[in-house]
Specification:
0% strand, rod-shaped
Length: 97
């Protein structure tokens, strides 16, 4: 009633077992190496996307501040003035053309 043991068939030689072990260890080392490379590649990507995010935020803030500045400039002008050829607040007659 014990668990069945898993082993090589009796006709497998020691050399084949050794070769199987070497192959397994080689595949395991290659997998570990590829995972390490993937982790190294993630660092620059994270830094690049972080910088792009910060640059986008700076751009949004700059546009918002510029628009706020334009709104403030428009409210400083006197309200009796119309931008164009004639000023309505003046007492001079309008020239006939």
């Amino acid at each position: 009633m014990g668990s069945p043991t898993i082993s090589y068939p009796p006709e497998v030689t020691v050399f084949n077992k050794r070769n199987a072990l070497v192959g397994f260890l080689t595949v395991a080392a290659l997998k570990r190496r590829s995972r390490a490379k993937q982790l190294r590649r993630k660092g620059p990507k994270i830094a690049l996307f972080s910088l792009l995010g910060i640059a986008a935020l700076v751009g949004i803030v700059a546009v918002a501040l510029r628009r706020r500045g334009e709104d403030d400039l428009g409210s400083e002008e006197p309200e009796s003035e119309i931008l164009g050829e004639y000023v309505t607040a003046s007492s001079e007659p309008i020239p006939a053309t």
